[in-house]
Structures are given as structure tokens and as C-alpha cells.
Amino acid sequence: MASHADMLATKAPNPYVTGELEELFTTRRPDSEPSVLDAGAGHGAEALWLAAHGWNVTAVDFSPAALDLGQRNAAQAGADVAERITLVEGDLGVWAPEPRAHDVVLCLYVHPAGDMAEMITRLGSGVAPGGTLFMVGHQSVDPATGEPTRAAGQHQVSIDEAGAALRGDEWEIVTLENRRRDDQMGGVDAVVRAVRQP
Ligand SMILES: C[S@@+](CC[C@H](N)C(=O)[O-])C[C@H]1O[C@@H](n2cnc3c(N)ncnc32)[C@H](O)[C@@H]1O
């Protein structure tokens, strides 16, 4: 049965967030005020779910329409959820988070212009020591068939670029792999999870 937190979101939060990262978001100490940055938050399904679990969320997107919808969804979810969400209009091609300010930085399915490795490094700069960077990118070509996917023409996070951006002592790589999608979108997702070393 869906929890109260799950029912607050108008669209189900991303299964990677509720699956791979759920333990981060549901084992919060009652007295803590953890912080997550959702970069490219869209209309805020993950932000709503996270806020409903007691996280403070900074949700960044460059689409005023997405932010507007996110604002309305947050208001509908109630004051206890809405007050935990800060919506920010920003272009992830250049926008930078407050350094080391967030316990988790999420970035799911964005396709900014510019150098992807640079964006990964820039967004990663917002992760606090011991915190987690989690990114997912739908690859534009299906590696099994060589056919274009529904993300054709988009440049999303890849494991090669993430591996290059996160190499060195600063990060422990937990996950760096392509996973086959099981929906009608087809192809694979690059899934990246890394922990900033203290
Ligand atoms: C496919 S949606 C994904 C939304 C959400 N992360 C999710 O997984 O449901 C991509 C989002 O990224 C945003 N986006 C794409 N490029 C961006 C950029 N350069 N700066 C900020 N947001 C961007 C879009 O406006 C859109 O809301």
C-alpha cells in the first residue's frame, strides 16, 4: 500500500530514487535537517517525495513552466511539504550549487548544452563530505541494436564522462554502469552514484 509520502506526489517519483537511494531518504534521523539538490527537477515528483520524507529540497530547473507546475504541486501537497522545497530557476549549463552544502545531489535525465564532464564536476561541488552524487542519463543510442532511442539528439550523462569527471581521491564510485530500461522508451540509462570522501 502506498505511504502518505508516496501519495503526496502527483507523479510517481523516479524508481532509481525510491529504489537505489531509498535508504538514504527514509532513514533520516528525526532531529536532522538533511538537504538534497535536485538539478533539473522538472515538475517536482522527486522533490515532493523527498520533502514528504522530511528532506529540505532545492529544486533547480531552467523551465519556468516546470517550476510553476512544481510550485502548484507543492502547494497542493500542503504547507509541511511546500515549506521544505525551494524552487530555483537556473541553467545547468552554468548554474553552480553552494559548495559542499547538500547531503545528496540528484540529477536525472537532463541534457544541458556544454561540456558534460564539467557539469558533473560543477554539480558534484555541491555535495558535502560523506554525501552522495546520483545521476542518471538516458543514452541516445541503444548499445544492443545501434538504433536511436527516444533520447536521440540529446546529450545526457554517460558513464564515460562521469568516470572522467569523478576520478581521483575525492570520490568513491559506488555505481557506474549502463542499465537496460524496461519501459517503452528503450535503450539504456547510465547510472552514476558516488560518495564524496571526507
Ligand atoms: C526529462 S525531464 C526530467 C525531470 C526530472 N529530473 C525527472 O527525472 O522526472 C528534464 C528536465 O531537465 C530540465 N533541463 C534540461 N536542460 C536543462 C538545463 N540546461 N538547465 C536546467 N534544467 C534543464 C528540463 O526543463 C526538464 O524539466
Question: Can you walk through the features of this model?
Answer:
42% of the residues are buried. Helix 7 (116-124) crosses helix 8 (159-165). It contains 8 helices and 7 strands; from the N terminus they run H-H-H-E-H-E-H-H-E-E-H-E-H-E-E. Among the domains are: 1-24 and 32-57 and 76-101, no CATH class; 163-198, no CATH class. The chain has helices at residues 4-8, 15-19, 22-26, 45-52, 64-77, 79-82, 116-124, 159-165, and strands spanning 35-39, 56-61, 85-89, 102-108, 127-138, 171-180, 188-196. The model is unreliable at 1-9 (pLDDT under 50). The protein binds S-adenosylmethionine. Pfam families: Methyltransf_25 (PF13649). Residues 36-131 form the Methyltransferase domain.
Features:
198 residues, alpha/beta, seven-stranded mixed sheet, 8 helices, 29% helix, 27% strand, globular, disordered N terminus, binds S-adenosylmethionine
Layout of SSEs?
Layout: H1 4-8, H2 15-19, H3 22-26, E1 35-39, H4 45-52, E2 56-61, H5 64-77, H6 79-82, E3 85-89, E4 102-108, H7 116-124, E5 127-138, H8 159-165, E6 171-180, E7 188-196
Parallel strand pairs: 1-2, 1-4, 2-3, 4-5
Antiparallel strand pairs: 5-7, 6-7
Helix pairs in contact: 7-8
